[in-house]
Each structure stands twice: as C-alpha cells, then as structure tokens.
Design brief:
Layout lengths: L5 H10 L4 H15 L6 E2 L5 E2 L12 E5 L11 H9 L4 E3 L1 E4 L5 E3 L22 E5 L2 E5 L7 H4 L27 H15 L4 E6 L2 H6 L5 H10 L9 E5 L3 H9 L4 E5 L14 H4 L2 H7 L5 E4 L19 H7 L3 E2 L27 H10 L4 E4 L2 H13 L7
Parallel strand pairs: 3-4, 3-14, 4-9, 5-9, 9-10, 10-11, 11-12, 12-13
Antiparallel strand pairs: 1-2, 5-6, 7-8
The protein binds calcium ion (2 copies).
The site of one calcium ion has 3 residues, from loops.
C-alpha cells in the first residue's frame, strides 16, 4: 500500500506529532475529504503555523529529479527535466540564478563555462572575468553579465563528461531554460502523463545576488504567482544552502521551505561562524523548524560512510528532524561507482554503475521522506520496490 503523501505527513507532524503509523491512518481520513482544504495547525514550537500543506503529489517518499534526469542528459535543460518526468520523478529540480535583466534561469551556478558553450563564443570573449562569490574567487562567464536574449544563444553541455560520456551526445543541442519555462513544462508534462509534477526550486547565492541588485526571491515568487503556484497547496518546495533568504521567504510565502545542509565542515555563506554540523544537531534542527518545513542534508549526514568508505549506520538526524516536524530529503543519489560507498561499487571503473538499489534501500529504511537523484528511474524503481516490501508498515 502507498504511504501518505508527504504533504499530509507535514500537516500531521505539524499539528500533533503523532507516530508515523498513526499519521498514516490519519492520512486516510484526510484523503477521504479533508486533503483539499487548507488546514492550519500549530507548529511544534507552538507558533501559529499556516504553511502546513495537504497533498502535493501522490507518491511517498518523493523522488526529486536532481537538475532533471542529469544522469542521462546535460543538466538543467528542458530535455533533462522532461526525461525525469517520463522516468517517474515526482518533482523536477531547477537551480535558479539571474540574468542581467533580472530573469531567473536554470543553471547550477551563475558561472556557466562548465555547463554551456560560452567559452567557444568569440562574441562573448570579453565577458570573461574574475569575481568573488561567497568568498571564493572564480574566473569565468557569469549569468548576471548576460541579458536573457544573449544567454538564449548559448547551448548547454554535459558538466561531468569524464563520467558521463554518453550525455555529451547532447552537447550543443539545448538552450538554457528560464524558470518560467521549467514551471510551464511541469504543468504541461504533468497533464500529459496524468500526474501532478512538482517543482523543487533552489535559489543559488541569494546574498550575492542581493549585493548586485538582482534579488532572487521577488522574481521567483512573481513567476510562481503568475503560474498559480504561490499558494499553500501548490506542488512546490523552495530550498537554499543559505539561511537568511529562507527566513525572508517564510514571511513572503506559504510554500514549504527546505534548509539544505551541506556535508563536511562548512556552513551557510550568509552565516559566518555557523556550521552545517551545528545546524544538523537536535538544537540546530529545532531552530530550522522555526522558519522551514524540511531539511535537505548531504546524504552522509543521514548515513555516514565508515573510515573505509563503506556505508555506515544511520545517525539520529532523521529522528531529530521528524521530532520537530521537519521533512528529510537528502541529496544526491547517483548510480555511478564513484558516488557510491566503497562496498556498493562494482568493478573499478568510476563511471560504471554500482549497487545503487542497495544504497536507496538503506536510506528508505532510515526513514527519509524523499531524495534527490540524478537517475530518477532507478530512484523510482527503488522507492516502489521498498513500498511494496514488508519493510514499511502498511498505511
Ligand atoms: Ca540544486
Ligand atoms: Ca533577496
């Protein structure tokens, strides 16, 4: 049996924080008629919380097509997103940055020499420059130095051709999409395949974009509003590695917000002195729950690797996050050996596929509410197999 849609789980957690099995039962009552009416509930911290949302998509745990189906196509192209939807992804994931004329486009970074053919264009040779973004000096070509019309003349290319040689087949074929085009694609493809397709949008370097007068949040919400998606029940998540813009968004929209938690020893670019390690503790998660609805941790924060690089045992992060009403959507799941724990690799070629299904199963068993995958077809197959197995209590 299918588990409750993740939105219902949010609602239930926010309202009464009952155990998951009871939450599943409640979801049946909600599905019977209440799910479409926005129900406000008190957040675990007691403040009035009106963002808690009913059903968004039909599946649980959700599969987010990370940059589309970036395991198979150059990332952040309409073709990559379209393939992710065809493969069964519940959400597609655009990262957004701004053009010089204030249009949000889907790119992993504002520096675009790694994902477009800009460096081959003599007409843009003089746009190459060095900037300091989040404290790091970067030389290249930046979206904020191009109008949308100029950016539209570029063509996407595979970001990691050494690992994904097959994807280079598509180099030079697809333009850079605007956020609006991605949102429209989710709607039209959703209608075509008969499923609600969500959009899981990441704002990139929001403090930096503020500093150059190209704030991301306003055009983001305007785009969603035009599409009828800036509302409580819309199938949308907004995510960021920074904290200040999520707190700001919490005052501007009822859409669910996800605090990304990077791996390693770093921290949010807008909060010097605070680390993601600190934000991942029970106390840190309680703080996040005051402005966000979920966390998107580096997957090693859910199940760390051992010293030998094998898959270790789960931390308390999922339980700690659930205890304060936060969803947990770790990133990034990929089929290639190089991204897998050493004990799940097959052979020695970094780009060959390893035992990805075993990794997914371990994470679903750890209780995650969804995940980001470059290979949505594998993730959906793993999710469906997990839900069909006896490991998850029936709803
Ligand atoms: Ca992203
Ligand atoms: Ca801003």
């Amino acid at each position: 049996m299918r588990r409750p849609p993740e939105g219902v789980l949010v609602l239930v957690r926010r309202t009464v924080r009952m155990p998951l099995a009871a939450a599943a039962l409640t979801s049946l009552a909600l599905a019977a008629g209440l799910a479409s009416s926005p129900v406000a509930g008190a957040a675990p911290d007691g403040r009035a919380k009106d963002r808690a949302a009913p059903t968004r998509v039909d599946a649980y745990p959700i599969v987010v097509g990370h940059r589309g189906a970036s395991g198979y196509r150059p990332e952040h192209t309409l073709e990559s997103y379209r393939l992710a939807i065809a493969m069964g992804a519940d959400y597609i994931e655009p990262d957004v940055v701004s053009t010089s004329d204030g249009v949000l486009v889907a790119r992993h970074e504002n520096e675009i020499s790694g994902t477009t053919d800009v460096f081959t264009r003599p007409e843009f040779a003089d746009r190459q420059t060095t900037k300091t973004i989040d404290g790091k000096a970067l030389t290249g070509w930046f979206t904020e130095d191009f109008t949308l019309a100029e950016l539209k003349t570029l063509r996407a290319k595979e970001r990691i051709p050494e690992l994904r040689q097959e994807n280079t087949l598509y180099d030079g074929r697809f333009p850079v999409p605007t956020l609006q085009e991605v949102v429209e694609l989710a709607k039209t493809e959703g209608k075509r395949v008969g499923r609600t397709i969500g959009v899981y949008i990441e704002t990139k370097h929001p403090t930096y974009f503020d500093s150059i007068g190209l704030s991301l949040e306003e055009p983001l919400l305007a785009t969603l509003k035009r599409a009828g998606l800036d509302r409580q029940t819309a199938p949308v998540f907004l995510q960021s590695f920074e904290t200040g813009n999520l707190r700001e968004l919490d005052t501007l929209t009822k859409l669910p917000l996800v605090q990304l938690l990077g791996g390693g020893s770093g921290g949010p670019a807008d909060r010097t002195g605070t680390t993601y390690n600190e934000l991942s503790t029970a106390a840190g998660l309680r703080e996040i729950a005051s402005y966000a609805d979920g966390v998107g941790p580096d997957k090693n924060r859910v199940i760390p690797r051992t010293a030998a690089g094998t898959l270790g045992t789960p931390t308390s992060l999922v339980a700690d996050a659930h205890a304060v009403g936060l969803l947990v959507h770790p990133y990034t799941f990929r089929n290639e050996n190089v991204f897998l724990p050493t004990d799940l690799r097959v052979g020695t070629a970094p780009d060959d596929y390893g035992k990805a299904f075993a990794e997914y199963e371990a994470f679903f068993r750890a209780g995650i509410d969804g995940l980001f995958s470059d290979n949505p077809d594998t993730a959906v197959a793993a999710r469906d197999a997990f839900n069909a197995s006896a490991q998850r209590p029936a709803a």
